[in-house]
Amino acid sequence: MVNFAFALPYVPPAPPASPWQGFRLTWRGWDGVEWELTKPSTGLFLRPGVRGLHLPDFTRQSTSSPMVAGSRHRGTSTADRECFWPIYLYSDDSSEEFLKRDRAFWGSLDPDLVGTWTIHLPGGARRTLDLRLVSSEDNLLFDSIKRGWAKYGITLLADRPYWLGETVKKSWGQEDLRNYDVSLQDRIDYGYASNVINYLSAGSTLGSAAVSNDGDIPTFPAWTAVGPTTSVSFGVDGSRIKVPFGIPEGYAVQIDTDPVNGQVLWYGPWDGSKIADPVDRTSELDPTSKFVAIPRGQDRKLSIVMTGTGTVLAEVQNKYRRAW
Question: Which domain of life is it from (predicted)?
Answer without folding.
Answer: Bacteria
